[in-house]
Amino acid sequence: MQPQHRIYASFFLFAVTTGALMARLPDIQSHLQISEGQLGLTMIGMSIGSLISLTFGPPYIERLGFRTTALFTVLGPAVLFATIPWLPVAPAMFAVLFVAGLLAGALEINLNVEIDRLEMQTGKRFMNRAHGFWSVGFFVTALFGAMIRQSGISAAWHQGIVALIVVAVGGYLLFGATAAPRPARAEGQAGHGFAFPNWGLLPLCLIGFAAFLVEGAGIDWSAIYMRNVFAVEPFVGGMGLTLFAFFMAAMRLSADPIVARFGPRNVAMVMLTAASGGALLVGTAPSPELALVGFALMGAGCSAVYPLAVSAAAQRTDRPAAVNVAAIGQVSFVVFFLAPPLLGFVAEYLGIRMSYLICLPLLIAGLWASSFALGTRKVEAPHGMPPEPLGPNG
C-alpha cells in the first residue's frame, strides 16, 4: 500500500467516526433531555481538548512517530464515541468529548504534516485529495446514518457497529505504516516546542476559520435545522448533511487540477463566495428543497479552502511544518468543534436560521484574507523535486 493511501484511509475512518456521532445528535439530545444551548455547551469539551492538543502536541507527536500517533488518534475516538449513547448525563458526555478532542487535535497535526512531507518527497499534490477522503467519509456516514435513523436502529447500536469497523479496518491498515523523511527545510528549526499563531500566519488562520465555521455549522446542525424548521422525516432531515458532505467530497477530490490551473487564491475566493451564497440560502429558505440546495453550496464552497491554507502554512520556512500546521489548526480545527456549540446558543435564543446567517461576516473576512494570503499559482515539480511554494508566504 502506498503511504498516501494510509493517510486517505485515516481521514476517511475518522470522518466516519465523527459523522456517525453528528448524524445521531438529535437522538442524543433527546436521550439526555437537554436544549440546543445545553447540547452546544456539552460539545465544547471537544473544542477544549483539541485546543490543548494542538498547542502542546507537536513535540510529543514527533517523539511518538506517525504510525503510533495514527493508531491512537484514528481508533481512539471511535471507541470513545461508542460510549456516548450509554451516558446518563451531559457532563459525562463533555468528559468523553474532551478526551476525543485531545486525540482529534493530534490527528490533525500528524496527518497534515505527513502529507506535506510526502508532497516534498515526491513533488506531487496529496493535500486536497486527503481531505477529500475526510469528506467522503462524512458523506458515506451521513447517507447511511439517515437510513439507519429511519429504520429505528438505536444510536447505541449504530455507534457500536461503527467503532468495531473502524478499529478492525484502521488497525489492519495502520499497523504497517512508515513515516516519510523529514524535509531539509526542517533542519535546525527544532526550537519551537509549542504552537501559537504568529503574525504571518494570521491571514491563513482567518481563511481556515471561515471554512471550518461553515463546515461545523453544516455538519453539526443540518439535521436539527431540517427537523426544527421544516419538521421533515428523519431520512429527509439527514439529506442536508448528506448533500453537504457529498459536494464537499466531490470538490476536494477534483480540486487539485483546478488549483493547478487557476491558482489557490482564485479557487479559494470562488469557493468562499459559493459558501456565502449557501449560508444565505439556508438562513432564508422558504422550503426544504431550497435549504438542501443551500447545504450543497455550503459543502462545495468550503471544500478545498482549508487544505489550501494548510499547504501554505506547512510550506512556510519560519518554523517547522508541524508547528505551523498545529498553529493554524488551533484556530480552524477548534472552530470546527467550537462553532457548533456557539451556534447552538444562537439557535436557542435567536432561531436556528440565524445560526447560518451569522456565518456571513466571517466568510467575507475569509474572502478578504484569501485575496493576499494565498498564492496565484501552484506548479508541479519535475523529476521528484519539491513543489514551488503557494505564494510569497511560503
Quick summary of this structure?
The protein is mainly α and 394 residues long. 77% of the residues lie in helices and 0% in strands. The protein has helices at residues 3-23, 25-32, 36-56, 58-64, 66-83, 90-122, 127-151, 155-174, 202-230, 234-253, 255-262, 264-284, 288-301, 305-314, 321-350, 352-357, 360-373.
Structure description:
This protein is mainly alpha-helical and 394 residues long. It is 77% helix and 0% strand. It has helices at residues 3-23, 25-32, 36-56, 58-64, 66-83, 90-122, 127-151, 155-174, 202-230, 234-253, 255-262, 264-284, 288-301, 305-314, 321-350, 352-357, 360-373.
Q: Helices and strands in order, then pairings?
A:
Layout: H1 3-23, H2 25-32, H3 36-56, H4 58-64, H5 66-83, H6 90-122, H7 127-151, H8 155-174, H9 202-230, H10 234-253, H11 255-262, H12 264-284, H13 288-301, H14 305-314, H15 321-350, H16 352-357, H17 360-373
Helix pairs in contact: 1-5, 1-6, 1-7, 1-8, 3-6, 3-15, 5-6, 5-8, 6-15, 7-10, 9-10, 9-13, 9-14, 9-15, 9-17, 10-13, 11-12, 12-13, 12-17, 14-15
Task: Sum up the overall morphology in one term.
Answer: globular
Structural class: mainly alpha
Helix content: over 70%
**Distance linking N and C termini:** 31 Å
Give the biggest beta sheet: none
**Number of helix segments?**
17
Strand portion, in percent?
A: under 5%
Number of strands: 0
Instruction: Tell me, rounded to a whole number, the average pLDDT.
Output: 83
Residue ranges: pLDDT <50 for 5 or more in a row?
186-193, 378-394
The ordered H/E elements are HHHHHHHHHHHHHHHHH
Q: Nearest-angstrom radius of gyration? A: 19 Å
